[in-house]
Every structure is written in structure tokens, then in C-alpha cells.
Amino acid sequence: MTYHLLLGDYAYSSWSLRGWLLFEKFDIRRDQTMVDFSDQSVAEQLAQYAPARTVPTMITPEGAVVSDSLAIAEELASRHPDAGFWPTDAKARATARSLAAEMHSGFMALRSDCPMNLRLSYEDASPSKDVIADLARIETIWSHARKTCAAEGPWLCGDYSIADVMFAPVAARIAGYNLPVGNAAAAYVAAHLSDPAFRRWRAMGMVRGATLPWYAKDYTTRPWPGPNARAARAIDEGTPENATCPYSSKPSTHLMEIDGRTFGMCNAFCRDKTVADPEAWPAFMALL
Predict the structure, then answer these.
(1) Which residue from 24, 96, 185, 261 has the fewest beta carbons nearer than 10 Å?
(2) Distances (CA, A) of 55 to 39, 68, 75, 169
(3) What is the value of pTM for the model shown?
């Protein structure tokens, strides 16, 4: 048996992004089930996994139902102590835990006023005083973490950890709403937007699921501030260079074109997520 992960909409579910990153970034195998935010309530869709009522939810190999992102993180860390979920240094680990806990319970103005929407970015979201206060606190604890942990790379406490998982959707909000932060915070946001795992999640969010208008705001939009995706397009006809899908090894049936070359995937979703951001997918890039 393996873990089973229940997730919400790729484009809009910030907590699902955290749950997915806990598996993706630390190379933990799982099966996944997606909950449709445009359909019946999340709780109704999770009825067979009671008492789960929210996403993400993790079902352990033994059948335990874990329905909270921080609980999922701690349980995975305890089961996979060598995976690197928390820093090995005691001071850095304590700092990372504090960061993760504060994100889990705080920043309500930012979360309420600026819901995650990976399909849009805005020129000026005119943040409220409460959002500005949240941003100031976020910058304070990010700066403290980097100084305390003497972090030399892009992440808060040294190597990528649960603390960075918890703040990935915050980075998406700062980028998506063009919120005012200093240079150090902006660099941390850019590190998330450039991270291949984050790019894969966003690519899936661009092509799967309905556009949900209640997540949109009445602001002027702008291009997404992350890395520009390499040009590619879906096509209906052609002969693919690869006989099998790079993700599933099933026969290539759905075609795409990049750099004048034709490749195939096993279904429309595999093709479309690749077209959305080809360089985010190592298995595909290995074909080029």
C-alpha cells in the first residue's frame, strides 16, 4: 500500500498546494484524488473518507485519515526522518517549526483579501492596512529566519523544508497581487515562482478545472511574474518522436509541438500540462 492524497483545485487551493509539495518536493510516492471546487461541497465529495471534510487530506498506508496540512507534514517527517522535511540543525529546525506554525494559524487578512489564484496576476491590488501589517510581519520572520539559520541559498532555513512549503502559497499571493515587499522578500518569492515543483503545480492549474469567477478580483491584470514558459502548442495531427508518454509509458495519442518537433502524451491532461510549461517537466525535457 501507499499514501493516498486528496487535493482541491490546482489553481485555487492554497492548502492543497502545500499538501502536494510535501510529497513532491520530498519524493514521497502517493496516489491522488482531485476534488472539484465547482461541483458539490468538498465535504460531500469526501464522504467516503470520513471524518475528512477539507483538502488536503492524507490517507496513510494503514488507513489513518489526516486532514490538516501541518499534521500531514509532521506525520510524514516522523515516518521519513531522512527525507529532509525539517533542518537537521537544532536551531534551524526550531526556527522552521515556528515559521510553519505561525503561517498555519496566522495572516488572516492576507488569506482573506488575497485568495490564491494562479491563473491571474494583478497590477495593483490596493492592499488594506491589515494586509500591509501581515506583509510586514512576514518580512520580519523571513528575515529573522535567514539570519538565525545563516541561510546561504534561496530558502528560509537552509535547504528547502516544511517552512518553505507553508509559505509557497504566500509567495504566490505576493506575486499574484503584486503586493509591496522589500528586495529580500521579493527574491524569496521569485525563488518559489522559479521552483520546478511550483511550476508543475501551476501548469496543471492552468489547464485543469473550471475557471471559478468568485476567486477573481476587479483589478487590472498583468502577465504572470514568474519565468516565461517555453513556447509550445497542442496539435491534432503529426507523427510523434516518442512512441510512449514520458509520464505513464502508455502509447502516445495526444500531440504537441515544440521547436518544430512533435511529441505525444497518453491523454489531453498530460499534453496540456506540458504545453503550459514544458521546462517544468523533467521527464518531457529528457526527450529534447
Answers:
(1) 261
(2) 14, 8, 16, 15
(3) 0.97
Helix H or strand E encompassing 100: helix 90-105
Q: What is the mean pLDDT of the chain?
A: 96
Residue 104: pLDDT above 90? yes
User: 90-199 has which fold?
Assistant: Glutathione S-transferase Yfyf (Class Pi); Chain A, domain 2 (1.20.1050)
Classify 40 in phi/psi space as left (phi over 0), alpha (psi -120 to 50) or beta: beta
C-alpha cell at 91: 536551531
d(Cα 272, Cα 256) in Å, to the nearest integer?
A: 8
Q: Where are the domains of the chain?
A: 3-79, 90-199, 233-285
- Using CA atoms, how far apart are residues 50 and 64, in angstroms rounded to an integer? 10
Most distant CA pair in the chain: distance in Å?
A: 57
Q: How does DSSP assign 204-257, residue by residue?
A: HHHHSS---GGG--SS-EE--SSPPPPP-EEESS---S-SB-TTT-PBP-EEEE
User: Cα separation of 124 and 200, whole Å?
Assistant: 26
Quick check: 259 pLDDT over 80?
A: yes
CATH number of 3-79: 3.40.30.10
